[in-house]
Design brief:
The structure holds two protein chains of two kinds. Chain A is an alpha/beta fold. Chain A is about 35% helix and about 20% strand. Chain A is globular. The termini of chain A are far apart. By secondary structure, chain B is an alpha/beta fold. Chain B folds into two domains: about 40-70 and about 85-225, 3-Layer(aba) Sandwich (Rossmann fold), CATH 3.40.50.300; about 245-265 and about 275-335, no CATH class. In chain B, helix 4 packs across helix 5 and helix 5 (about 130-145) packs across helix 6 (about 160-175). Classes of the chains: A alpha/beta, B alpha/beta. The interface of A and B includes residues 174, 233, 270 and 282 of A.
């Protein structure tokens, strides 16, 4: 098994005490556009351990969705190339044959999306669509597939599944459709479930139900979860580790508790502090000035530096994702000297701490 | 800062009385009661939050407040007058004072018009001053929302989502409204931009004395910006009160569940396990449950709840609730 540079990531493997289920190494995705080839993401490195629940967070355009799609090689038509490796149980998903990919996709790695209505086919019953996954991947009779589908619908919390199994998607509510999607994704017992904003289109009370279901299923069947979201609250609810992305790069990788209490990257800290309910009521919200650089004009060095209040000379140098101790990694060379506030610090008490360190 | 109960309440800029808005389904067989008997006042200079899940009727109320929709029954008074009683031309000039901003700035801006032309349009329709005067006012509005001069000549596609929303805000400001209904105005924006836009709303309110009705599904946003907040469920208000009271000492079981369901970015050491996960989903507004509309999902529902709709009562000063059992102390987890 040719993992690129095992020495760099020894500590990570040791921390989890198990071989990772999936190792992404140096993943980069390029797209063709009228203006030339654009690099959407680059040098993405992370591991997911068996049964681990990892949140990939970032704002729109940071590359989190495309990273999830590239794992299943579900890439859009203007895709120009993939760099690096995606090692899943010894197979490199970035370079394996289409046939090998088909055997993994839906069976060992499944994916659910934000909008279940566009992922379900309106002209087939939900039972048919769930059983289809099973019949493609296994030699199973119609009756057996139906029985398993019923059991799965019950497991994802659909009331009276005997009646619902022959319903069409339009007859179900948004929350029930997402439950059907989850049932379809889990029917083959995948080792990894990639969930891209699975609750963003749902109401908050239904969101709570679906998050509880995802956590419960991951725990009982030891399914690893890669949860892609912009919502730090959702990550805190069900994930144990949080990978923060910015402008196509991983900028921080830490346990959720560590990242929330003591973020190491100024962008993670800025995001946490800009959340409304953590700031004093009616006070001014701390915000991150400026905007994400456009994909066509990415700066050299730290991509966040134009918006960073801690940027100094030296930040224009290339920033590696470096080990920060305790299995944490951060893409900021100043991480050790910056004492950044997290979700718990009231903004006013945080400011002197930052000044004192300089 | 001590709000003594004896302090005279500010006069309402908007009074809503027994508001009902009904829609016919497309096959004309059924009626959707989108808003079904809502009463409230919006006080001058305040930010009044309305929170609810999809289908609760919050957007319908917002549109009715600025008369984009006609109430089916009940009354909406602006400054004590009923705008529907005005003549057509008086109504047209009256409604300039009551603006609305929507969620998606892409849908609100014409892609073929420059930013300046978009901001000028309301002034032209209202035939304000000379051409030069109108342009000066439009540029002033753009400056006020923090957009540099040269943005006037650009087109919407050249702007980011946050900048487009600023343009929409500038356009609503050109006619110097008294009240702006803000319907999910930050929902489409990224987290790091949201704070900026919310700060802008606060600045404009302070400088221009605006009144806002802030409609959102986001508890964090509403509790950050509003002085008072109303919680809506299936076409009705279930609770209304000062934001601190509603957020920290909620009275209605639905509010309690809503607050508990909100995912919070807190580490595990600060989490409480006392989460209430409501079963099921919101029933159809075509055929809402009898009595209390929340009873089908309420963990405390009793026989009385199906028989009789609860009264809308002021249980604590300025804090209203519609629940038969809201005064029972064992409701709230804290």
């Amino acid at each position: 098994m040719g993992i690129g540079q095992p020495a760099q990531r020894g500590a990570e493997g040791a921390r989890d005490g198990a071989r990772p289920l999936m190792s992404v190494r140096g993943l980069g995705i390029r797209f063709k556009t009228a203006q030339g080839v654009w690099q959407a993401t680059r040098k993405i490195d992370f591991d997911i351990a068996p049964g681990e629940r990892v949140g990939i967070v970032g704002e729109s355009g940071c590359g989190k969705t495309i990273t999830g799609l590239s794992i299943l090689r579900l890439l859009p038509g203007n895709f120009a190339g993939l760099d690096g490796k995606i090692l899943f149980d010894g197979i490199d998903l970035a370079s394996c044959s289409a046939r090998q990919m088909r055997a993994i996709r839906g069976k060992r790695i499944a994916m659910i999306f934000q909008e279940p209505m566009s992922a379900l086919d309106p002209v087939f019953t939900v039972g048919h669509q769930i059983a289809e996954t099973l019949r493609v991947h296994t030699d199973i009779s119609y009756d057996e597939a139906r029985a398993k589908t019923l059991e799965m619908l019950r497991r994802v919390g659909i009331a009276s599944p005997e009646r619902r199994i022959d319903d069409y998607p339009h007859q179900l509510s948004g929350g029930m459709r997402q439950r059907v999607m989850i049932a379809a994704s889990l029917i083959c017992g995948p080792q990894l479930l990639i969930a891209d904003e699975p609750t963003t289109a749902l109401d908050v009370t239904v969101q709570a139900q679906i998050l509880e279901l995802l956590r419960d299923i991951s725990q009982t069947s030891h399914t690893a979860l890669m949860l892609i979201t912009h919502d730090l609250g959702v990550v805190a609810e069900i994930c144990t580790r949080m990978i923060t992305m910015y402008a196509g790069e991983v900028i921080e990788d830490a346990s959720v508790d560590e990242a929330l209490v003591r973020p190491l990257h100024p962008y993670t800290s800025g995001l946490l502090r800009s959340l409304p309910h953590l700031s004093p009521r009616h006070g001014r919200l701390p915000s991150i000035p400026g905007r994400v650089p456009s994909i066509a004009e990415m700066p050299n060095g730290c991509r966040f530096r134009a918006r960073c209040s801690h940027a100094v000379k030296g930040c224009e140098a290339e920033q590696p994702l470096q080990e920060a101790g305790g299995g944490r990694r951060v893409r900021c060379w100043r991480f050790a000297e910056l004492n950044l506030p997290g979700a718990l610090h009231p903004p006013e008490s945080a400011a002197p701490a930052m000044v004192a360190r300089q | 800062m001590t709000a003594a109960p004896a302090e005279p309440r500010r006069e309402p800029i908007v009074s809503v009385r027994d508001l009902q808005v009904r829609f016919q389904t497309t096959d004309r067989r059924a009626t959707v009661k989108a808003v079904d008997g809502v009463n409230f006042d919006v006080r001058r200079g305040e930010t009044f939050g309305i929170i609810g899940e999809s289908g609760s009727g919050k957007t319908t109320i917002g549109r009715a407040l600025v008369f984009l929709l006609k109430p089916s029954a009940g009354a909406i008074l602006h400054d004590g007058i009923d705008p529907t009683a005005l003549s057509r031309s008086a109504f047209q000039s009256h409604r300039r004072d009551y603006q609305i901003i929507f969620q998606d700035p892409n849908a609100a801006l014409n892609p073929r018009m420059t930013i300046l032309a978009s901001v000028l349009e309301p002034l032209e329709l209202a035939r304000v001053g000379s051409r030069a005067e109108r342009e000066r006012q439009a540029r002033e509005a753009l400056e006020r929302v923090g957009l540099p001069q040269e943005f006037g000549e650009r087109y919407p596609h050249q702007l980011s989502g946050g900048q487009k929303q600023r343009v929409v805000i500038a356009r609503a400001l050109t006619l110097r409204p008294k009240l702006i209904v803000c319907d999910e105005v930050v929902a489409a924006l990224d987290m790091s931009i949201r704070g900026d836009v919310l700060n802008l709303f606060a600045d404009l309110q302070r400088d221009l004395g605006l009144t806002y009705v802030f409609i959102t599904h986001d508890l964090a946003v509403v509790s950050h910006i509003s002085e008072r907040v109303a919680v809506m469920y299936l076409g009705q208000f279930v609770e209304l009160g000062p934001t601190e009271a509603v957020a920290e000492r909620p009275l209605h079981p639905y509010t309690i569940a809503l607050l508990s369901a909100e995912p919070r970015p807190l580490p595990s050491s600060m989490r409480t396990d006392a989460r209430i996960v409501l079963q099921g989903e919101v029933p159809s507004p075509i055929d809402p449950p009898s009595g209390c509309r929340f009873r089908t999902r309420c963990p405390h529902a009793q026989a009385l709840c199906a028989e009789r709709a609860p009264d809308w009562r002021e249980l604590k000063p300025d804090h209203w609730v519609a629940c038969h059992f809201a005064d029972r102390p064992n409701f709230s987890p804290n």
